[in-house]
Design a protein that fits this description.
The structure holds two protein chains of two kinds. By secondary structure, chain A is an alpha+beta fold. Helix content of chain A is 55%, strand content 7%. A four-stranded antiparallel β-sheet of chain A has the order 1-2-3-4. The longest helix of chain A is centred in the N-terminal third of the chain and has 19 residues. In chain A, 29% of the residues are buried. In chain B, 32% of the residues are buried. Classes of the chains: A alpha+beta, B mainly alpha.
Chain lengths: 312, 197
């Protein structure tokens, strides 16, 4: 094998960064003086780039389904009918624990998660007599149009019902604020978005918009509030997003929502199209915004309503 | 570096908590790795259903056997050993059955199931849309002709970006053997695509 042939067998490993220091040095040295091998290296790069085109990123829906299914299987392994019983299950199932001392013991906490007091839910499949504490583990739409909620008590249970069911709603409103699981909050807010016409749900969405640390959840909550953008409390929350949300995408969306219709009625005067409070908020934004795109969007709106860029 | 060390410490704490029965800690471990596990299975098996089966089985095995994990290797290596074994089993079974679940019969001939996953593709990306369907088919065919082991090493190195040393650890072989495997895989791929590049 001559030098060029030997070098070409190493080009792929060179691109993968898998040659030893000495091997790489020898290849580099040869390439400097050999145009044909440099061309071969270029072809190798093209080949690698062609491989890249075939890579598949799992769709979010497949990942989500996989997580849900895994969660169900693990919950099933924890069920009392399963032959695999952990020390914790044995402990909780002990007969003496069902005495009056149980409540005090359970209040120590389950899985270290944040709990809320037992709701005494009148939901099919739940034992109302059970004392203890509960936490919503996951929520998902059911095939029949209802909602399925997996609940952690002393063990996980499945609770089903429609959005009209007060018990289901209470669980959802609590899950939307669960600080330990952004995925749960995201799914919950997505479901609540269909019921934002009730003030109770809207308040929860506003809370998520203003306080959730996860931008995905905040964005989802904003989606649910879109139809109610004329409501004063929603506008106030969006103005808050504009001035204090750390995510430029959120700020851009807030501008779009608060200024809906501005471009379509450019002949109107300032006060008719946008409230003065919103104009003031936009001017305030211009004073502090660092993101060029958000600034540009804000400036454009202010121009359309003939307002100055800044407050004086 | 400090960040990586921090993550490893956190991960150790998470594993220990999960071993002690903390479900939230287990959930965090799953979420840290499950996307790359699913991607690996999907790329290797080219079937969302088979990839989901591998995902389920792998994490259930982790769940059931976590107490036997003794930190002799990284959690990533341990998890990937489980996942790659499951994928290799599937790939070998397919070879035996001569079944190609990566494709189904469409109106205009065989269609790669991954091509139906529009969500996964960068729509409107001119570079992708210009990519020759013929070349894609040729690459797929060439990948299909690799041995299960060559396919695995190629996948782990090219698509998952793992170093050969780590791949050797996962597959229970030496770095040198993994390198030879990758070398054979790339040689075969180059030979199959010689008129395209």
């Amino acid at each position: 094998m001559n030098t060029c042939e030997k070098i070409r067998t190493q080009l792929s490993m060179l691109l993968y960064g898998e040659l030893s220091f000495d091997e790489e040095g020898a290849v580099d040295e040869h390439l400097e003086g050999c145009a044909e091998c440099r061309a071969a290296l270029e072809r190798e790069r093209e080949l690698h780039a062609a491989f890249d085109q075939l890579e598949v990123e799992p769709p979010a829906s497949v990942l989500w389904e996989s997580r849900q299914s895994l969660q169900r299987q693990i919950a099933a392994e924890h069920s009392p009918s399963s032959p695999r019983v952990s020390w914790w299950d044995q402990f909780l199932n002990a007969r003496w624990l069902q005495s009056a001392g149980a409540l005090a013991l359970l209040s120590i906490g389950f899985f270290g998660a944040r709990m809320f007091p037992s709701l005494g839910l009148g939901v099919t499949g739940m034992s109302l007599a059970d004392p203890g504490e509960q936490r919503v583990r996951s929520v998902e739409p059911a095939a029949d149009g209802g909602i399925q909620i997996v609940l952690d008590e002393t063990r996980q249970r499945v609770v089903s019902g429609g959005l009209d069911d007060q018990n289901i709603r209470v669980l959802l409103l609590s899950a939307a604020k669960d600080p330990s699981d952004p995925g749960l909050r995201y799914e919950t807010v997505g479901i609540l978005n269909n019921r934002a016409q009730t003030a109770e749900v809207r308040d929860t969405l506003i809370y998520a918009l203003e306080h959730d640390e996860n931008a995905g959840v905040r964005l989802k909550a904003m989606d649910g509030l879109k139809p109610f953008v004329q409501q004063p409390e929603v506008r106030k929350a969006l103005a808050g997003v504009l001035l204090s949300d750390g995510n430029p995408g959120m700020r851009t969306q807030a501008i779009d929502l608060l200024t809906q219709g501005v471009g379509e009625s450019s002949g109107n005067t300032t006060g008719n199209v946008l409230g003065r409070d919103i104009i003031g908020t936009l001017q305030e934004l211009m004073n502090r915004e660092n993101n060029a795109y958000v600034r540009q969007r804000g400036e454009r709106v202010l121009q359309l309503v003939n307002a100055s860029r800044e407050t004086y | 570096m400090a960040q990586k060390a921090g993550f490893q410490t956190d991960e150790k704490a998470l594993i220990r908590a999960a071993q002690a029965g903390d479900q939230d800690a287990f959930g965090q471990l799953v979420r840290a790795y499950d996307q790359s596990v699913l991607r690996l299975a999907m790329n290797l098996l080219r079937s969302p259903e088979d990839a989901q089966d591998v995902y389920q089985e792998a994490f259930l095995r982790v769940y059931r056997n976590l107490n036997s994990f003794r930190f002799d290797c990284s959690f990533h290596t341990w998890l990937y050993r489980i996942v790659t074994n499951l994928c290799l089993d599937q790939m070998r079974k397919r070879k035996v059955r001569k079944e190609e679940s990566a494709q189904f019969e469409g109106a205009d001939g065989p269609v790669d199931r991954m091509d139906t996953l529009q969500e996964a593709r960068a729509e409107g990306d001119p570079q992708r849309s210009m990519f020759s369907g013929e070349l894609r088919q040729r690459i797929q065919k060439a990948l299909g002709e690799l041995t299960a082991r060559e396919r695995m090493v190629f996948e782990l190195r090219h698509y998952q970006g793992l170093k050969l040393r780590n791949i050797g650890e996962i597959l229970g072989t030496s770095e040198e053997a993994a390198k030879n495997c990758l070398f054979r895989a790339t040689q075969k791929m180059r030979a199959a695509l010689v008129d395209f590049v």
